[in-house]
């Protein structure tokens, strides 16, 4: 038998008498890993810990509750020694990851929608870390410049090599003032493409 707390019943929505659940009740929960492979009952952490006498863990499993809804959980189990020193039971901790995974999926969807909108508008959003000179972009500057993807463009120092030589001194002179002011920094300049063409950029 499995002794469980009220949070367990609330999480799994068991309609059972408080305090105890038979193994048959636990078996009814279908568990799958993120790759959609089923977790056989004998491979579940609580069973492995009881059988092997060592801690067992599933970092992420999808659980179908009796009412048909789904949970995403991390499950850990450790054997508890009995009076004779041999495993006498198992303690298990279940962490609900459902809201976290849904929030991550929503964030990925919003980021993809933003990238799509920026691409459709011919724009790239970027962020620059002055301490490391690293630049993070929403789209590919390589495509704009007609460069192969292995050409380094991860820093402003990399990008400077592709800015029109007539515009680069002005940009380099304006950057310290923009950083000191701490407000918006706007400028227009030209990039030189790999084929020799020029594109104007407002940033």
Record keyword descriptors for this entry.
203 residues; alpha+beta; four-stranded antiparallel β-sheet; two-stranded antiparallel ribbon; 7 helices; 10 strands; 33% helix; elongated
Q: How are the elements arranged and paired?
A:
Elements (H helix, E strand, L loop, with lengths): L1 E2 L2 H7 L7 E2 L1 H5 L2 E3 L12 H8 L3 E9 L5 E12 L5 E10 L1 H23 L5 E4 L4 E4 L3 H5 L10 H5 L7 H14 L6 E5 L5 E5 L1
Antiparallel strand pairs: 1-2, 3-4, 4-5, 5-6, 7-8, 9-10
Would you kindly provide a written description of the structure presented here, covering whatever features stand out?
This protein has 203 residues and is of the alpha+beta class. Helix content is 33%, strand content 28%. It has 7 helices and 10 strands. The protein has a 4-stranded antiparallel beta sheet with strand order 3-4-5-6, with helices on both faces. The mean pLDDT is 82.
